[in-house]
Specification:
By secondary structure, the protein is α/β, with parallel strands linked by helices. It has eleven helices and eleven strands. The longest helix is centred in the last third of the chain and has 14 residues, at 222-235. The two termini are 24 Å apart. 40% of the residues are buried.
């Protein structure tokens, strides 16, 4: 019978051990045996670690944990008892590494925000094709000045504790890749700021210091993200099971499905069945304690 570990965790000031125990009680009705459980106190969090035995699949456990934690401000991580030595970290940028969708701020700056935000939301939920949505949104940005791009970049907020996470990964010798369906103007900046080893993104076509409403080169979409993960696994002689992937939207799903550890960072509902570590309430500073 497979052995799994379920870690439930919550922010100290907002909830307490009772909520964690309530989640455990909900899980106890499932066909699993809890061999051991104990609370752990971290600087800003309280965790409840469950060592279980079950014949349920990992995907079924993820679903059960999602159902058990949804009434509370509790996040979870489900994994096997075998400790993994992760070798690659690959992450999306917009709404994952940073708090905003860059294209939405760009749109606001030229008065087409409502139109573009609606297209963005539908694409992230998987309701419309990402590439089709990308071309449509970029065309709406036609004739935006390059100077405006610098102004937009000043409005972007790095997600709290991401520098801590990246420095922790670097200390562990993990190869880091930033991959985004967003734009190189922003991705290059944050990749260099956080010392990523590689980065990939879409390139805006600029002529005479103005956006043309077109893109240059190969499009970074869901398939490109998955293929990039697999390419670096082959290049670095790493199993996909030794990869950490992080994202928030539908175009991250194929990449997340390949990874041994799939992290949803305040992700859309479409990601819930595939991510074994889901952050909806807690911050990124919990991750170094879990990896």
């Amino acid at each position: 019978m497979p052995n799994y570990k379920i870690t439930l965790f919550t922010i100290k000031p907002h909830t307490n051990e009772t909520d964690l125990d309530n989640c455990y009680n909900a899980l106890s009705h499932a066909p699993l045996t809890c061999v051991d459980r104990h609370h752990t106190i971290l600087p800003h969090y309280v965790t409840l670690i469950l060592n279980i035995q079950t014949q349920l699949s990992l995907q079924k456990l993820i679903t059960l944990c999602g159902q058990a934690t949804s009434p509370y401000n509790v996040d979870f991580y489900v994994h096997t008892h075998v400790d993994k030595d992760y070798k690659i970290f690959i992450a999306d940028m917009d709404k994952t590494l940073i708090m905003e969708e860059c294209i939405d701020i760009m749109a606001d700056s030229i008065g087409v925000g409502d139109v573009i935000k609606e297209i963005t939301e539908q694409a992230m939920q998987g309701k419309i094709d990402f590439v089709q949505a990308l071309y449509k949104r970029v065309n709406l940005l036609k004739r935006m000045s390059q100077e405006t791009l610098y102004e937009v970049r000043q409005e972007i907020t790095l997600r709290q504790h991401m520098p801590l996470l990246l420095s922790t990964l670097k200390k562990k010798g993990i190869y880091t890749i930033l991959i985004s369906g967003g734009f190189s103007f922003f991705v290059e900046y944050f990749a260099n700021l956080l010392n990523f080893d590689r980065y990939f993104s879409n390139v805006l076509c600029i002529k005479n210091d103005m956006l043309t409403g077109e893109l240059e080169g190969k499009i970074v979409d869901a398939a490109f993200k998955r293929d990039t993960l697999l390419h670096f696994c082959k290049t670095l002689n790493v199993s996909p099971d030794e990869v950490i992937a992080m994202g928030d939207g539908a175009n991250d799903m194929p990449m997340l499905q390949e990874a041994g550890l799939a992290i949803s960072m305040e992700g859309k509902d479409i990601l819930k069945p595939v991510c074994n570590l889901q952050l909806q309430h807690c911050k990124a500073d919990i991750l170094p304690f879990l990896l």
